[in-house]
């Protein structure tokens, strides 16, 4: 029999000891089997010598309220929230950050004193950190095309609008689904236009346009209806599998600058890490862990 404390591990990542003193966080979603978040956060905790552990928490539809109540009951410090629960989680929090209230979605829960749950959306700041910092793209005065209108799309749209985006085109299968996104940007000067998916092929982005895919399209090889791309266009696909995604391949072939979703994933994770721990996230240690995990997945 193996001796010692139990451990948290995912996808072949090194085991993380969990003791009575360990502070535990996790990721709520359905499914979460292939999430990179456990590897990313546990690498960050290890790099700073923190007695913390991050575990996957598979929660099927209909069980979200019980899961959030369980976090409080079991003494979790918080959790990330991913598909399909981001919008539902916002309705279960005792309070919301300004960003989470705007986009009506939560990707990070923080459990405070007396078990009060505060919801945050670190996708907003994470996308901004990635786009303006790592990718070196300033949205001010530009036109952007965002595919999708769910929680991640709303977060990216808010980040773009706050950074001075002039015009936002939102491509969705059903225009009514974009109404929450339009409301989230209601008091910002960015011009917003909603179009059906297929109409995106004729969209005019102008010089220095930005394209963001915040949908699952591409994960199984399906291609988006892209407008004309070229040098000066910046494309971000929030998907990070396969690597590269069909969108990233198509954009690079057209001469555009293209990025997969790993950078965005890392920066939103860093924001969550900092909310929970109060420490600056060791981003490069977290990035290395994610890249190792992706490499291992490609090798299977």
- How many helices? The count is 10
Enter the CATH topology name of the largest domain. Answer: Rossmann fold
Radius of gyration: 19 Å
Whole-number average pLDDT? 93
Order of helices and strands: EEEHEHEHEHEEHEHEHEEEHEHH
Query: Helix share of residues?
Result: 25-40%
CATH architecture of the largest domain: 3-Layer(aba) Sandwich
Backbone structural class: alpha/beta
Beta-strand percentage range: 15-25%
**Overall form:** globular
CATH class of the largest domain: Alpha Beta
Strand order of the biggest β-sheet: 4-3-5-7-8-6
Oligomeric status: single chain
Would you identify the CATH H-level superfamily of the largest domain? Answer: Leucine Dehydrogenase, chain A, domain 1
> Major sheet: size, sense and barrel closure?
6 strands, mixed
Q: Tell me the number of structural domains.
A: 2
Give a verbal description of the structure.
With 300 residues, this protein is α/β, with parallel strands linked by helices. The chain has 2 domains: 150 residues, 3-Layer(aba) Sandwich (Rossmann fold), CATH 3.40.50; 137 residues, NAD(P)-binding Rossmann-like Domain (Rossmann fold). It is built from 10 helices and 14 strands. A 6-stranded mixed sheet has the order 4-3-5-7-8-6, sandwiched between helices. A 6-stranded parallel sheet has the order 11-10-9-12-13-14, sandwiched between helices. The longest helix has 17 residues. The N terminus is likely disordered.
